[in-house]
């Protein structure tokens, strides 16, 4: 993955976190509505209701700024889910203190459970459980505060049952959350493997034709954008010479081993930023970004030399392995199939000219009345 791809996916993750913050805002709005409903019902004085609404707004603005500025990256959980849930507890516990009806108080435990369930999608099992225990501990602290400030508002027998029920809910949610986390990481690993399988050639471990075409297409977009600075992009179509003969004389397994070992050797011969993949059979496509035709021809020569020098134990020492290569430069705006076709024609010339060589498709040389 290039640095640009990394940046792109990082921005994507941050955007996703911001979008998830909207859920938090939604839940705050919902709780604020309940708080004001309790006020209208005469179960809560107006001052705590207003303080609750203000602190909700403040918290959400704070979290928004933290994600927007990238400060969230300094946290163990950059999505800040656990922190958001725990911070949302403070105004809730504060407002609960002033609610005169015990039954109305438990509504907040219900909302807190909802937020915990929400945490199941991004928190690990332990973190979910910790959030749950924090909620329960806050509730207990509230009851103790009430015991001191307004003991007539609590019935400890009922509260013990409530807390026991809530502890069971915490256990259940964290258990299910753990299962969900496992499922998610298994799915992620399987997706990665599927992606790998869909883009790699199983024999040579090089990118397959599909991946090659995608990368080539992307490279042409970049070359088209940079056209003003004359950034070139060249390709080479490489074919092992007389490969059928290797199969026929030494067997298909030896043919496979040659493909495998030569692929690795070719990959090592190229620069880090170059790209090589198996185009099909014994044919390979090489993508050479920021490379003009002359330099591409020189790279082709290096690949030819590397093939001649390749030590493949499965072949007799006397066997001289060689490749033929057709290189060409991508012309801004053209279809990749047209570039490949030109490289293929150059490759055909290389084969016809005696193999074990590089032929560059010269832009100006007409062939059968066509410009190649
Ligand atoms: N062992 C092995 N052989 C393969 C594989 N894919 C294609 N081939 C063989 O590669 C050979 C290609 O033969 P041809 O197209 O005649 O080309 P060539 O013998 O290399 O001759 P030139 O290209 O003209 O030099 C065929 O015999 C295919 O069966 C593979 O994965 N493993």
TrEMBL record:
Pfam assignment, any one: GGDEF
Give cofactor(s), names only: Mg(2+)
Q: Which CDD domains match?
A: GGDEF
Q: What is the lineage of its organism?
A: Bacteria, Pseudomonadati, Pseudomonadota, Gammaproteobacteria, Pseudomonadales
Taxonomy, superkingdom: Bacteria
Q: Does the keyword Transferase apply?
A: no
Task: List the PROSITE patterns.
Answer: GGDEF
PANTHER family, from UniProt?
DIGUANYLATE CYCLASE DGCM-RELATED (PTHR45138:SF9), REGULATORY COMPONENTS OF SENSORY TRANSDUCTION SYSTEM (PTHR45138)
Q: Top EC class per UniProt?
A: transferase
Q: Supply the alphabetized keyword list.
A: Membrane, Transmembrane, Transmembrane helix
In Gene Ontology terms, what is one molecular function of this protein? diguanylate cyclase activity
- Transmembrane segments in this chain: where? 21-41, 47-67, 79-100, 106-123, 130-150, 156-178
- Record-given protein name: diguanylate cyclase
Look up the EC number in the record and give it: 2.7.7.65
Query: Which catalytic reaction applies to this protein?
Result: 2 GTP = 3',3'-c-di-GMP + 2 diphosphate
Q: Which InterPro entries match?
A: Diguanylate_Cyclase, GGDEF_dom, Nucleotide_cyclase, Rev_trsase/Diguanyl_cyclase
Record-annotated GGDEF domain positions? 231-363
């Amino acid at each position: 993955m290039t640095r640009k791809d990394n940046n792109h996916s990082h921005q994507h993750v941050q955007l996703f976190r911001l979008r998830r913050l909207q859920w938090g805002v939604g839940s705050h709005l919902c709780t604020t509505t309940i708080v004001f409903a309790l006020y209208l019902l005469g179960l809560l004085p107006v001052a705590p209701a207003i303080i609750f609404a203000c602190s909700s707004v403040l918290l959400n603005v704070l979290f928004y700024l933290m994600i927007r500025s990238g400060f969230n990256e300094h946290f163990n959980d950059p999505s800040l889910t656990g922190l958001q849930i725990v911070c949302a507890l403070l105004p809730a516990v504060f407002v609960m203190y002033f609610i005169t009806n015990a039954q109305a108080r438990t509504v907040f435990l219900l909302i807190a459970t909802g937020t915990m369930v929400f945490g199941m999608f991004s928190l690990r099992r332990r973190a979910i459980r910790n959030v749950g225990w924090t909620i329960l501990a806050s509730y207990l602290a509230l009851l103790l505060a009430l015991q001191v400030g307004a003991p007539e508002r609590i019935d400890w027998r009922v509260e013990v049952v409530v807390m026991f029920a809530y502890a069971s809910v915490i256990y259940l949610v964290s258990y299910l959350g753990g299962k969900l986390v496992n499922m998610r990481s298994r799915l992620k690993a399987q997706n990665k493997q599927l992606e790998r399988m869909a883009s790699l050639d199983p024999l040579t471990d090089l990118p397959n034709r599909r991946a090659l075409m995608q990368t080539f297409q992307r490279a042409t977009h970049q070359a088209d954008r940079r056209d003003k600075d004359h950034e070139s992009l060249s390709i080479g179509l490489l074919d092992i010479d007389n490969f059928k003969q290797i199969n026929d004389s030494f067997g298909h397994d030896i043919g496979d081993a040659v493909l495998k070992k030569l692929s690795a050797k070719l990959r090592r011969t190229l620069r880090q930023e170059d790209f090589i993949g198996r185009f099909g059979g014994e044919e390979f496509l090489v993508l050479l970004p920021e490379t003009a035709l002359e330099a591409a021809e020189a790279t082709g020569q290096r690949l030819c030399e590397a093939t001649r020098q390749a030590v493949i134990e499965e072949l007799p020492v006397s066997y001289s392995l060689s490749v033929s290569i057709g290189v060409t430069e991508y012309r801004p705006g053209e279809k990749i199939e047209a570039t490949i076709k030109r490289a293929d024609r150059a490759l055909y010339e290389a084969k016809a000219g005696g193999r074990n060589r590089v032929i560059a498709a010269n832009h100006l040389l007409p062939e059968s009345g066509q410009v190649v």
